[in-house]
Design a protein that fits this description.
Helix content: 40-55%
Strand content: 5-15%
Mean pLDDT: 77
Shape: globular
Distance between the termini: 81 Å
Number of strands: 12
Largest sheet: 6 strands, mixed
Length: 505
């Protein structure tokens, strides 16, 4: 519950640092990962100034029932005149989106410069009235542009584990379909004879991968609303939002009927494959081969050059996975989504430089689909959301002493995949594989450019999904023709020098 509607009101002399000392308690049944965020300052209700804060420690992990954990926020207040006031809001993304008011009144300096002023704030989570089981709706297409905004906020409340489990099941389902083809069956049979496949199966068995997926689905089922569960998961709802951009006009209050998205039930695959680790692992590999040309080529080389099994690696083949899995329970899905958006965006930027990509993008620019997407992205402040997320990622890595780490969750998983390959293929992989996703560089390029973000991600998705590629290509082909370029006006040339009239006529 909210403790007496918490707020911070202080009076402080000019040029004096302010320290907010938080005392945090966890009254929930979940493990909380908290990092406070201070919004930009509003000076005298008309000037906005960026806030500069240092949080010590950068992140706090609160276990159920834990109390009295301290965290300091050191604020360097903007230079303002005496008698002026500053207003801002303190938020905890994922747990307190409604800001806690912060009001600072600046006083004249009296005598010598004062030391830092400290103010205390006690908070117990959950700060807001809990919605209870099934309270998280996560329907991003229900309210158009408002839905995108709320969905981005709600990504802070979902562990990365939930979203990753759904994506893995979808990849396994895609691999199962591919295995039914002649080409897929040949690849499947060949992979089972390789040390690479056996090592991955052993690692999956050691980590009890099927049971991990099942436990994830059970937890997700209890938390998400019936609306999300009936729809078939988070990705299905996002697909629905994406296709709702085609015919709807997000500038209108009333929306037309939303498209029907094929129902996807993650539980079906879990029941079908059970605890068969080799089937899970094989389906995942086949699914990855359908979305990544590099992985597809690597798997075929394994079958052709390195079968049958000769020896298994002596190293701990579960090492990199052991680095990932525990963090998936505490890191919000927001972080995984940001990584995915950066990867998709970078692929989309590359495709946009090609002749086909440039032509397709030019057509999409003239569709209502693209206009609606840019409007939704701008209204949801996605560029700023990406910027804040990137800063949070950097701060978290700094707090763990991993500031030199070149990538995130996906990069670590890729390193584990590469560790299973023979040495010669690892060298080829390093040459072929792009550099780790440069999240910071991507965010900087996309700053304040909603149309560029939407275009890059859409083009990236088209490289990932043949079905989505086909559908978006049809949308682009229905775009209205480009209006003809206006002709340049022509003016008659007069020989004014030979005339007798005045030049000032």
């Amino acid at each position: 519950m909210l403790l007496n509607s918490p707020k911070i009101q202080v009076k402080i002399p000019q040029n004096t640092p302010l320290i907010i000392r938080l005392f945090l308690s966890n009254q929930t049944d979940d493990i909380l990962l908290l990092r406070p965020v201070l919004e930009d300052w509003l000076i005298e209700s008309h000037t906005v100034v960026c806030s500069q804060i240092t949080v010590e420690p950068a992140y706090v992990t609160l276990y159920p029932g834990q109390q009295g954990v301290t965290q300091k926020i050191i604020l360097q207040l903007p230079p303002v005149q005496a008698e002026q006031s500053l207003r801002s809001q303190l938020r905890f993304p994922g747990w307190q989106e409604a800001g806690i008011p912060v009001q600072v009144e600046i006083l004249p300096v009296m005598g010598q410069r004062n030391q830092a002023q400290i103010t205390d704030l006690k908070l117990a989570f959950p700060l807001e009235a809990a919605q209870g089981v099934g309270g998280l709706s996560l329907n991003p297409h229900r309210l158009g542009i408002i839905g995108l905004t709320s969905a981005l906020l709600e990504l802070d409340q979902i562990p990365s584990r939930w979203l990753l489990a759904e994506l893995l099941i979808r990849l396994c389902r895609q691999g199962e379909v591919y295995r039914q083809t002649e080409e897929g069956e040949v690849l499947w049979e060949g992979l089972q004879e390789t040390a690479f496949f056996q090592s991955g199966a052993i690692a999956s068995s050691t980590l009890q991968f099927p049971q991990w997926i099942l436990d994830t689905l059970v937890k997700r089922q209890d938390f998400l609303s019936a609306e999300v569960n009936d729809a078939g998961g988070l990705v299905t709802l996002w697909e629905g939002w994406l296709w709702s951009l085609v015919d709807n006009d997000l500038e209108q209050t009333e929306q037309s009927n939303l498209p029907n998205i094929p129902r996807f039930q993650p539980e079906d695959g879990v029941k079908e494959w059970g605890s068969d680790v080799q089937r899970w692992w094989g389906n995942l590999l086949l699914g990855l081969s359908q979305i990544s040309p590099l992985i597809n080529a690597t798997l075929h080389r394994l079958v052709e050059e390195f079968a049958p099994v000769q020896s298994l690696p002596d190293s701990d083949i579960s090492y990199h996975l052991n680095l990932i899995l525990p963090s998936l329970d505490i890191l919000p899905a927001r972080w995984l989504v940001v990584e995915l958006l950066a990867i998709l965006g970078q692929q989309g930027e590359i495709y946009a430089q090609t002749e086909n990509g440039s032509q397709l993008l030019n057509q999409l620019h003239r569709t209502r689909f693209f206009k609606n997407g840019v409007l939704a992205v701008a209204t949801a402040h996605l560029p700023r959301w990406l910027h804040i997320s990137q800063q949070a990622t950097s701060a978290y890595q700094d707090s763990l002493g991993k500031s030199d780490h070149p990538g995130g969750l996906i990069y670590t998983a890729e390193q584990w995949f590469k560790s299973l390959l023979p040495d010669s293929l690892q060298a080829d992989w390093e040459e072929s594989w792009a550099q780790p996703t440069n999240l910071e560089g991507f965010v900087e390029r996309m700053e304040r450019e909603s149309d560029r973000i939407f275009a890059a991600v859409i083009l990236g998705l088209m490289q990932l999904s043949p079905q989505l590629n086909t559908r978006l290509t049809k949308i682009a082909q229905q775009a209205p023709e480009s209006p003809p370029a206006p002709s340049k006006p022509t003016f008659p040339l007069e020989d004014i020098l030979s005339e007798n009239e005045s030049l000032q006529r």
